[in-house]
Design goal:
Helices cover 69% and strands 6% of the residues. It is mainly α. The longest helix has 43 residues, at 68-110. Bound molecules: zinc ion.
Length: 154
């Protein structure tokens, strides 16, 4: 019997995992934002409930204890929020990275010398020293006079 339930659990888990992966590929960021907002509202409500329960216990010396489920609920929602925030962050990073790479590739094939000249330099610590464009936020060579992305004059 135990085996059947384990296998059933595993198949549900893998189905869920697959669905999540597919969703991550196609889902719009607004879905995560909406989910995040509703989770934050849920958390706010849970804290409110906890506050009310504590008030009853401490101020009115109520007999009943604060239900443990309330703490568990807060913990679960907090973890869910952290997970969604992480996913939102990953999407933003992926999109920004691929877009920047695309722009650099275009520029390199377009004018090799100019691209070399305007590419960000690495400092002694290995971190790129860049002049960030105030117009489009793309990192440029520190000595660049124009933005490689939008042509903004520095
Ligand atoms: Zn720019």
């Amino acid at each position: 019997m135990g085996d059947v339930f384990t296998k059933l659990g595993e198949s549900i888990k893998s189905t869920f995992k697959e669905a999540t992966t597919q969703t991550q590929k196609s889902v719009d960021q607004t879905v995560y934002r909406t989910e995040l907002l509703s989770k934050k509202n849920e958390l706010k409500k849970a804290y409110q409930q906890l506050g009310e329960a504590q008030y009853e216990v401490h101020v009115h010396n109520a007999e009943e204890e604060i239900p443990v489920s309330l703490y568990t609920k807060i913990e679960v929602i907090t973890k869910e929020i952290a997970q969604i925030e992480k996913q939102v962050g990953e999407i933003v990073t992926t999109q920004k990275d691929s877009f920047d790479t695309f722009k650099r590739t275009v520029k390199t094939t377009w004018d090799e010398n100019m691209a070399k000249q305007t590419r960000p330099e690495k400092g002694e610590d290995g971190v790129e020293i860049m002049k960030i464009c105030s117009h489009c936020n793309v990192g440029n060579n520190i000595s660049a006079s124009y933005c490689i992305s939008c042509g903004n004059k520095f």
